[in-house]
Design goal:
By secondary structure, this protein is of the alpha/beta class. Helices cover 41% and strands 18% of the residues. It has 15 helices and 15 strands. The chain has helices at residues 23-35, 77-89, 100-111, 124-129, 137-152, 163-171, 197-202, 224-233, 250-257, 271-276, 292-299, 312-315, 330-342, 344-361, 364-376; strands at residues 9-13, 40-46, 56-59, 61-67, 70-73, 92-95, 116-119, 157-160, 178-180, 210-215, 240-245, 262-264, 280-283, 304-306, 322-324. Helix 3 links the parallel strand 6 and strand 7. The longest helix is centred in the last third of the chain and has 18 residues, at 344-361.
């Protein structure tokens, strides 16, 4: 192709958009903010009820098919037409996944020989496994893995956030070239505060409460009910408060509404303010890649307790900047929470080292600059 870096038309395709502020959308926000001078950027996203930004094509969604409270796009002639038109206008398609819009875009771009770069934010078959009936789960996961790996191999390049994921995908049959490009954190926006009481008061929380926090979807794959059960087991519960920053399906959210000392915020665009009100952060997820929420919590100087999944099991170091707990053990999670709350010296050490880890090793500028270099080579 005979175009230069200065006029590369970049189409970003995703299966999430406002008001669903998740890790994928946060990455898109940071990428666009730091790349709009380098590319002519347009977006192809589902219409989830909020239209925001320019140069955005919205795909119709179905009210009948949802996964983790995310409506999927309609498999309609109109949507396929919009996908074709958007791709025909682009020089490069940058896909975020992990659902129908992304895979239809990969399929059409491959057909018309437009270069496609996929950033893997989520392992799709692991995500969908949480929603499959137990009796069919093993067989369906095998089928889904084959289908999704087929689409991975129709891409021209795949970007992943950490080396272990690259090795895993190659072992499972991905032949497309894979490059590692870590995600990052805005360490100025997500920074520690010396006094948490004003932030607790801001959100209607008793300033003398110890706040145990979570950020993300309130859903099955995030394993949030292990956190709920652990919170109910923590001793001296009257002095503790559970802050759930996010939203999800009603059947997943309702149990949190039924307990005292718990606030559910819904999706918010000022996550950093809520992190300032927390004393401990828990990520109980069953499946993760990077977990931007955990990185942001650590950047905010919070001691974190996480499951050993995805990239967090590498950047969280036991007793240095965080703690681990088994995925489905509320009792052990409660013990870990109590340990941090009881041991002030441990809490201070984990907090300091969490911030240090992010400040030294995770930078949006470094991450986005690498991704821009990898994308720009398709315009040469």
């Amino acid at each position: 192709m005979s175009f230069s870096e200065n006029n590369l038309k970049l189409l970003i395709v995703a299966d999430t958009y406002y008001p669903k502020v998740d890790g994928t959308l946060k990455f898109m926000e940071e990428f666009i903010k730091r790349s709009e001078q380098d590319f002519h950027i347009s977006l192809l996203v589902p219409n989830l009820g909020m239209k925001k930004g320019s140069k955005v094509t919205y795909l119709e969604t179905s009210k009948w098919i949802e996964m983790s409270d995310y409506p999927t796009i309609k498999f309609s002639r109109h949507n396929r037409k919009l996908i074709r038109e958007a791709i025909d206008e682009a020089d490069l398609v940058f896909v975020q996944g992990p659902a129908l819009a992304s895979y239809l875009a990969i399929r059409y771009a491959h057909k018309v020989k437009k270069p496609v770069v996929l950033y893997v934010h989520t392992i799709t078959w692991e995500l969908m496994e949480k929603f499959l009936p137990h009796i069919f789960k093993k067989t369906m996961v095998k089928i889904l893995r084959k289908v999704f790996l087929h689409y991975y191999n129709q891409c021209d390049e795949i970007l992943v956030p950490y080396h272990e994921l690259k090795s895993s995908l190659e072992r499972q049959g991905v032949t497309t070239k894979i490059e590692v490009a870590k995600l990052g954190v805005d360490i100025v926006r997500f920074s520690p505060v010396s006094d948490k009481k004003p932030w607790k008061i801001k959100f209607g929380i008793d300033p003398d409460k110890i706040v145990i926090g979570y950020v993300g979807r309130i859903s099955k794959e995030k394993n949030v009910h292990t956190l709920l059960q652990a919170f109910q087991k923590v001793r001296n519960r009257r002095n503790n408060f559970l802050l759930m920053v996010g939203d999800g399906p009603e059947d997943q959210v309702q149990p949190f509404k039924e307990i005292p000392n718990c606030l559910i915020t819904g999706f918010v665009d000022n996550v950093e303010d809520y992190l300032k009100a927390m004393d401990v952060f828990v990520m109980p997820s069953l499946t993760e890649t990077t977990s931007l929420a955990t990185l942001e919590a650590m950047s905010s100087g919070l001691p974190v307790i996480v499951t050993k999944v995805g990239f967090p099991k590498q950047y969280v170091v036991k007793d240095y900047n965080g703690l681990f707990f088994p995925k489905v053990s509320p009792a052990l999670l409660a013990i870990k929470i109590e340990r941090i709350l009881r041991d002030i010296e441990l809490r201070a050490r984990l907090s300091q080292n969490a911030r240090k880890t992010i400040s030294y090793s995770f930078s949006w500028e470094r991450s986005i600059n690498r991704i821009k270099r990898l994308l720009n080579k398709w315009g040469k």
